[in-house]
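job 3f2a | input accepted
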Amino acid sequence: MKYDVVVIGGRVAGSTAAYHAARLGLSVLLLERNPEIGTPVQCAGGVSDSFFKSTGLKPLPEFTCTRIRAAAVNGPLGARIVTENPVVRGYILERKSFDKYLALRAAEAGADVLTMSIAGDLIFREGSVSGVVFRGPDGVQEVECGMVIAADGVQSSIARKAGLETGFRPADLCSCVQYEVAGMDVDPETMEFYFGSRFAPSGYLWVFPKGEGRANVGLGIRRKSCSERGPLSYLNRFMEERGFKRIEFNAGAVPVCGPIERTFTDGLLVVGDAAGQVDPLTGGGIHLAAECAKIAGEVAAEAIESGRVDGRFLSRYEMRWRKKIGKNLERSLKFRKILDGLGDKELDALLKSLEGKDLSSISKISLLRILKDYPSMLRILRDIL
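job 3f2a | predicted structure (385 res):
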């Protein structure tokens, strides 16, 4: 077999990259290790309206569960703020259906899709990635290609085989667990977030409504601050206190340390969780993965057309995605450090001080004024701004 591009990983990043490479005329092979694209679910599924606007996708009923119009933030000691700012408006996705939709879109654009296909090694020619060895339903196979796009998730091994540093330390990862639940009496248009040591130390707990009394209820925490208690113990306590009926369980890890240092090399690009293209503050990665994957597909087309798959040419991928989302990631990382330094009392007091304010319009100066009563926070804020 021979293709222009082999994409490894069939989730949002991989399917999006495969689609854009295929629509631009490349022959594309998309490899997914799981028997079914979209399972297991690894995300709460919330996306904003801006996601659909920037990607050109439409929020079709086949993969959107419910319309979101507000977000509520709950503090550890009872503080609560609700915002209906346009920034939070969006949808909760049914990830199984959404991921399949993206893979089908890639196939309709011309990409070949193989499930139950695990990429095990890379083939090199004169130091450049030029193929993939994978185990599929028909046994071990080799496929030649012009270049590879690695979208194989937070545990990515493919990019490391090409010499890129994609390993994340335990402190860089957020351990996430989630139940889909039924029989919930919640506002179907409001996402709920819970912060504080009781709910999710160094993280947060979420309740994302999916309509008809269903919701995704989960949390993510960084294990370095949780001693012997893991995320599941916090989530189970929350569930037991409310008597939710559990339908499905999912777990995974999300990198929240910012992107890796380098996302390209000769014959290979890295995209999505494998590249650390995740918001360090929220842990959200769908929008960022899609944005970066589109750029990866476009750069792949330019590279194949020009006959240049060397790292120098492919560096334009990193230059473009950092220009588009790099500053936002840096800002999110700074604010995550602020939240990390807040105790429960400070966090609750801060939330109360934000009541009635337009959260999207808070400037650096106004944030300093809000935090004037929290000396430890002012010190952290001044250190990182």
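job 3f2a | The radius of gyration is 21 Å.
job 3f2a | closed
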